[in-house]
Amino acid sequence: MKTIEELRKFFEADRFAAEMGAVITECGEGGATVEMDAGPRHLNAAGTVQGGALFTLADFAFAVAANAGGVLTVSLQNSISFLHAAKPGRLTARAERVSETRRTCCYDVSVTDEAGNLTARMSVTGYRRG
User: Fold this and answer.
1) I need a surface site. Which of 2, 32, 50, 115 has the fewest CB within 10 A?
2) What structural domains does the chain harbor?
3) Pair 57, 34: CB distance under 8 Å
């Protein structure tokens, strides 16, 4: 199991997530939490957080959780549902492992806003390349 410091170092190369402002805040066996302060650059024309920003945050949480064990893992399939319009502010994505085999894994990711509203849910299937 990689430490949070090792994961932060590894994911420095994930420039898109870094430019979006995603930060790893927690990682443990089978799960990870990442956060992002959504501001004007993350908003759509309606003034809420753009779906792509929510997707990126959720996908990044999956990536951190799935790679914490040291086996390079990439996503094969993602399905996201947007449940509640997210306003600017702190967003938190929590990835939880559902299952894992030698070559595949499945995770559920929830994204919440500062008020604790569930704004999005993602289901991810990953491929373990290592």
Assistant:
1) 115
2) 4-128 (3.10.129.10)
3) yes
